[in-house]
Amino acid sequence: DVQLQASGGGLVQAGGSLRLSCVTSGFTFDDWAIGWWRQDPGREREGIICIKSGDGITIYDASVKGRFTISADSALNTVYLQMNNLGPKDTARYYCGATYFETGCADRAVFGSWGRGTLVTVSS
Is a pLDDT exceeding 90 seen at residue 41? Predict the structure, then answer.
């Protein structure tokens, strides 16, 4: 059973940092693409960034370039999202998702197994 559990959210002031973790289970970690999405209330979930072993990193949201970094620890089956220089517009519930499709990070539509996400709130 594929499971992803995001954690690490919280309240932070603008300009601050957080590191989110996505602990995975139920699949071969290096065979899957794993990405981070976020969702504001009343809006659709949007992709931020993705990583897949052997394929590298794909950034979906240009607003996070230079601020957010994704990394993976295959020994721990965990993907991290380091978020720096946070601003109020980054406030959202953050989810990690995964796909086994050969398109990897290229096709956001085939991601799933979202879990409950973790809430990030950035105060101004």
Answer: no
